[in-house]
Structures are given as C-alpha cells and as structure tokens.
C-alpha cells in the first residue's frame, strides 16, 4: 500500500493543487496529464511555448517570462509521486531513495554514489537498460510503495 505524503505549503497553494502522477502511471496517463499543463503553458506563453518542457528549458536559461508562465500554470503541472514526497516528507523520501538504490545495485545497475538526499544516477547503461527499464521501474515502485 502506498504512503500518501502530507501537505507542506499553505492551504490552497499551487503546489498543493498539482496533479499527482502515481507510481504505477502508464506513459499514456503521464502524457495526458502533461497535455493539460502544456496547453496552459502554450496559452500563457504564446509563440515559443509549445508545451511544458519548453517552459522548463527556457526557465533554466534564466528567461523571466518562463518563470511567469510556469508560475501561472503551476497548479496544472503534474508532479511525480517521488517529487511530491521529497517536497512534503523529505525523511521518508531519503529512506525510499536508499531502498531504491539498494534494489538497483542488487539488480546489477552501475550507479553513482547517492547524494545527501539519496538521489543517484547510472554511470553506465548496460544490459539492464536505463532508468526507464523494467527492472529499474520495478525497484523504484517497490521502494516508494513501502
């Protein structure tokens, strides 16, 4: 059974309204949530803001308009279960990350040393694949479903 992280922000904040992408979401379900967000970004941003990913990229380039567009569409921007847990219950997030890392190591993935939050990367894509591979996905779901 999944744990549901609590709310950390003020009641009614845009972060608390964001759609949650569950651990078992399919790619189609994720894309359906991203579509709603992308439509908001295109409406708010106009030309050059075709979808949410364009707003993220432009924001990373310190574009002030991108920050405004993301803020305007924040309540429609989907959030993965892990992102929400990190934001609302960081101690549990770090514990779950540690379990994910251990599972992935046992499954044969070559991984970076986890950072202070337990987040890690893949140093080499081998026969098991990358973060989207079935074994890695199974480890992620097992760790965050605890």
Q: Can you walk me through this structure?
A:
This protein starts with 13 loop residues before the first helix and ends with a helix. Helix 5 crosses helix 6. It has 146 residues and is mainly α. It has helices at 14-17, 27-45, 52-60, 64-73, 81-88, 90-106, 134-144, and strands at residues 20-21, 79-80, 110-111, 122-124. Residues 1-10 have low confidence and may be disordered. It is elongated. It contains 7 helices and 4 strands. The chain has a two-stranded parallel ribbon. A two-stranded antiparallel ribbon has the order 3-4.
- Find the count of extended strands (DSSP E, 2+ residues): 4
Q: So how many helices?
A: 7
The biggest sheet amounts to: 2 strands, parallel
| Helical fraction | 40-55%
The fraction of residues in strands falls at 5-15%
Order of strands across the main sheet? 1-2
Average pLDDT reading:
90
Distance between the termini: 7 Å
Instruction: Give the SSE order as H and E letters.
Output: HEHHHEHHEEH
**Cα Rg:** 17 Å
Report low-confidence residues grouped into runs of 5 or more. Answer: 1-10
- Structural shape: elongated
- Based on secondary structure, the structural category is mainly alpha
